Amino acid sequence: MQALHDMDVSTSQAITTICPFCGVGCGMTLQVQQSGAGTRLSGIAPQLNHPISRGQLCAKGWSTPFAIDAADRIKTPLRRTPGGFQPISWAEALKSIGESIRTILEEDGPQALGVISSARATNEDNYAAQKFARAVLRTNNVDHCARICHSPTVAGLKQTLGSGAMTNSASDIEQTDLIVVFGADPTENHSILGGHILRAREQGTRLIVVDPRKTRLARIADLHLQLRPGSNIALVNALLAEIFANNWQADQFLDARCEGLDALRKSVARTDADAGAEVTGVAPELVRSAAREYSQAKKAMILYGMGVTQYVSGTNNVIALSNLALACGQIGRPGTGVNPLRGQNNVQGACDMGCLPNVYPGYQAVAEEEIRNKFARAWQVSVAEHAGLTSLGMTLATLEDKFRGLILFGEDPVVTDPDQTRERRALDKLDLLVVAELTMTETAKQADFVLPAASFAEKDGTFTNCERRVQRVRKALPPPGEARADWQWLGDIARELGSDALDWESAEEIFDELAALTPIYSGMTYAGLDREHGLQWPCNKEAPQGTAILHSDRFPIGRARLIPVHHVEIDEPADDEFPLVLTTNRLHFHYGCGSMSRKSPLLERETPDGILFINSFDAHNLSLSQHSPVKVSSRRGFIETRAIISDEVPAGLVTMPYHFREAPSNRLTNNAMDPVTKMPELKACAVRVEPLPADAQPRTMDEILADEAREVAGD
Amino acid sequence: MTDYLIDSPITLAKHIGQSRDLWQLKENDSGERGWQLSAPEIFSALRSPDAMESAKQFFFAPRENIFQFDGNQFRESLPAPEPFALVGVSSCDLTAIAYQDHFFRDDPHYQARRQQALLVGYECLSPCAKGFCPSVDAGPGAREGSADLVLHQLQEDQWLLRVLTDTGARALEGLVLEKAGDAAQTQRHNQIEACIEAFPDDSHIHAGIEAINSNSVAQETWDAAGIQCLSCSGCTTLCPTCSCYGTSDHTTGDTMIRERFWDSCLYDGFQREASQNNPAGAAGDRVRRFWYHKFSREFFQASDNPGPADRYGCVGCGRCEVTCPGVIGVHSMMKKITE
Amino acid sequence: MQSLVPEPIEILSGVEDGEAARHFRFRFCGQSDSNLKKWQSTRPGQFFMLSVPGAGEAPFTFTTLPNAQGEFSALVRRMGQVTGALFERKPGYTLGARGPFGHGWPVTDGDTEKVLTEKALIVGGGCGLAPLVSLVEHLINSGTPPVALVYGARTAAAQVLNPERKRWQSQLPLFDIVQQGNGCQYRGTPLDLLPEVLNQVGEPERVFLCGPEIMMHTVAEFFVQRGLPASAIWMSIERRMHCATGTCGHCYLEHQYVCKDGPTYRWDKLAPLLARSSGAGALADFHC
């Protein structure tokens, strides 16, 4: 990128598109120039008239030009050889991948193959991925990283409300009287939404933050309920108990629109703020205040994040929040609702597109014969009858020799998934691992074939943000080298396997196909999305302009369900051997595995010198000073880093961001799972922190692995 | 110098366009405004502070290569652009360019681009959404010497074309124009006065400037703002006078390139040293320094200061107010300071 | 114009000198005479920007100033990206240098160019001794050696510039002190040792400091308390820098740029600037 006119520019263009980072879906304009030397990105600006971001971007958004810089990109297909990765032609790559898939199909059938799609890719790419799995491979083995962020949301809210997405919209933050931020850190992770909360707070909106950490928002909140990790249900049940005890519930709403009240009342009658405090550690008077404020506010909205979902109790945590909102009638109106903050730019879309092993696009269940027939007819193929494997299911099946080939794009499970050692072992064991990526990632390093993928700036398509807004992503640049959009190379492999199921000419053609098969998208076209700055689903004949607020008049399941849920201990509490609880968090400056954000020298500079955040009390007990080198161990492994002493974390709790391959927190995290969704408990595990010698340089994960390999070889 | 009357900016653009690439503000299909290479036949009449991006990117590049190194020799990568013209720069952004002209007077990359540019100003007749240029001596009338030529609309089909520099006069050679009389100058004067009158109350800006200069802002105010500063870099990126940059090296094959890129003093790492010592480790201190550098007279009047021109570092465009997610842009912050 | 393009230099040698610290000798490659002249005008306390291609650029002080052959030295402690890469480079390797930059120590009267002959006391901490080396040498060569050099380090092993200090033993009174461990006559910080030093050598007329900022501040205040005017106390501070020409902004100190207005400051000028930036020196440790 250079100044606007450094070269002999023949034309210039400003392409308005959507930021590729988080689920807020801010608008940005990419400035591109054409000259004799080609097309290049010369600048980036926030979209002033975007309905949510209105001229704002976060640090990650501003750094986008570094993230997609051609200098670091994979530009040709690569084949793994004993001497390292070798560039090969697309034709060679497709032929070899096709042969390998055919062999596995012949020997073990479709259940030995699967696809992991990407919450970073477009709806069109994701639709193509699940269609490739279902119509070409004939398996429902398709999943993506929603498994480890909001699968409990989809499962929980689907049961209680009938729809597993944000019930309201970002703009509701400006209309509400009370915001409850529950297990989320929006100023860091959904910064522009976080900014809306800051603005609302300044204008007098009340703010309650529920978080074990003293987050930025907790510092300015009216109430901070600093609960112990994993005590969400105990806290919500205590809130409900106080609400019922004081008759603060919304009787009319409960009568008219909900079922299951008696059971819920009975279930929470056993607790109250005082009893809850023993589990949650939150002072009873704070709980009573919060119960009164939330139930008595005219309009109160809950925004929640992974501090709710990433537990063995994840689905029940979501149900608990739903119970709370329903009991107080804080749903279905402007400024209310149960609002999951989705992590990735298109995790909502990847779910909507059916990149989940049990549902087709639009959450149409694989279990229903009628639905299977609908897709079999539309795609003119026979489809698998049973739900497929989740991503963790694929890992386990691989270790049991039941799964052999995986096609994966735009994800880095080695860094982002729990229990890295097991993940690496499973990927190693695969007969075929195809990874499409922008740049080399830890997962791609284990692939048999690495395919060059086009970035968001190099393809057309759509992203669906966390408020269900489907927005246009527009091609601004040609992909570098031979990189291709995911739907394009998936189509190439399909053709290699003799299928024309993915023979599309354009992204728009895919969108028209998926809209026709996805009832919640059925009223959408590219022209409509352009006109309206995106449309929120459901968008159909009844709601041609889309739907800003779900459940206004009725729930998709008729009456909403109140479902009693009970506190579940975290799977691995602290003990003598591992006396601290580790939770994971995210930093404003980084994103996911860091494969995009860490390309910016500015964001990389913001990486702290160490990434273990520890309270001064615990640090003192361990004789740690600021930046002391430490070893952090759990039952699954250890990492080395430096300690950052911070009173953001309470005593007894330590936190680590998970973006950094050098010290991957997922070497430590627990793989115990939510029984409903297989969501691993990433938010709590027991660890031990030990000081390393004061002058020691913490080893990176690669160095530790190399040292271990040497030790093994030495034996 | 002589001022002229001209029927339309397009007449001027067609003339200038014979020898220079023309850039002006345009609106794209999504309604977003920005600088685009443009045909002379259109004049979009957009005020530059209504676009998110200022004109600074034309001279101080968002990213650029400084040199290449082949293992033995360092080779400077100086830009060599063709002559070009920016048509329709509002007074605030012109003032900012003048400010940076002074700041980067010895920067070869900046000057290589700047010397190829012709600046055609466009004076606003009404206040823009967040602007307060009169309060910081940056508009709405273009400041002397800040542009080569300045357009000021008098009638539907009559514009006053002011010539502020020799470069501007040379750019008009070959164009036959009627000289402007006193009536045109008076009308311009009155229109600018009327525009100034139309600006909303911005006493908070004046009070904020005085508070910063008398060092009377409570540390708690800065610390509270520090909590709300997300270090997104939006203010410093869009600010037309912000000039901080970082550098980093990339190696491809045998060639190493040093790149420089816009940096932001609001980042924690901006001053952090390799030893982890950080003279500005507190977010509130960084916010304070940012506003100090915009509004402190001490900063721009320091006699041996190599930096700013003799004026405030803020030109009153209001872009930071729009782009700040933390509600600490210029209006919000000055109100917090003076509340 | 102020170019950001370095001039090529080569590593002549690198000698281990203290914990993770190495004393490097460099030489300009193929410089014109006029350019060499510019470098030979370097004054004690000025600095240069050292480029390690591929790793970046950072400011370093001269321990010996460029000579007629274009050779000069710098002490470097392995600390971050640039120094980490430098330590991997072997003699003969080409690096880059820009400079000389900044205001050096006031070794001559600004008006008359006459060598100042006041009784100078020098206090260094850790690698902060590096910018003082050329000053000490200059004062010795001018026939007015410092009345004493007080040098503090974390441990004996962390002491740097060992050959230089050994050489100075016969030329001026040296007082070494370490915070931890043995191997040194005194234990503590330079501040602890100063009363004893002053007992032996008397009150100085001028004090030169370099080391962790917190150490410099406390030592400066110590002398102010004893009646030395703040204007007779000088110190060299360090900041992150990317240009050294007053444009990149990284070295801002209120309205000043350390690269141009510093790095040497008179305490009466510096103290008010630091007082306003509350975070200063909070995390400072002995470092180069």
From TrEMBL, chain A:
Is Ribonucleoprotein among the key words of this record? Answer: no
| Limits of the 4Fe-4S Mo/W bis-MGD-type domain | 12-72
Which key words tag this protein in UniProt? 4Fe-4S, Iron, Iron-sulfur, Metal-binding, Molybdenum, Oxidoreductase
Task: Tell me any Pfam family this protein matches.
Answer: Molydop_binding
Q: Which SUPFAM superfamilies match?
A: ADC-like, Formate dehydrogenase/DMSO reductase, domains 1-3
Cofactor(s) in the UniProt record: Mo-bis(molybdopterin guanine dinucleotide)
Q: Which Gene3D superfamilies does this chain map to?
A: 2.40.40.20, 3.40.50.740, ADC-like domains, Dimethylsulfoxide Reductase, domain 2
Designated name of the protein: Formate dehydrogenase subunit alpha
Natural source organism = Biformimicrobium ophioploci
Starting at the broadest rank, the lineage of the source organism is:
Bacteria, Pseudomonadati, Pseudomonadota, Gammaproteobacteria, Cellvibrionales
Automatic annotation (TrEMBL), chain B:
Family annotation (InterPro entries):
4Fe4S_Fe-S-bd, 4Fe4S_Fe_S_CS
Q: Where is the 4Fe-4S ferredoxin-type domain?
A: 218-250, 305-333
Note the Pfam families from the entry: Fer4_22
Q: Which residues form the signal peptide?
A: none
Keywords, in A-Z order: Iron, Iron-sulfur, Metal-binding
Q: Output the superkingdom of the source species.
A: Bacteria
Which protein is depicted?
4Fe-4S dicluster domain-containing protein
Q: What is the lineage of its organism?
A: Bacteria, Pseudomonadati, Pseudomonadota, Gammaproteobacteria, Cellvibrionales
From TrEMBL, chain C:
Recorded hits in PROSITE patterns, A to Z, give:
FAD_FR
Give the protein name, as stated in the record.
Answer: FAD/NAD(P)-binding protein
Question: One matching Pfam family, short form?
Answer: NAD_binding_1
Organism of derivation: Biformimicrobium ophioploci
- The FAD-binding FR-type domain is annotated at 4-107
Species classification: Bacteria, Pseudomonadati, Pseudomonadota, Gammaproteobacteria, Cellvibrionales
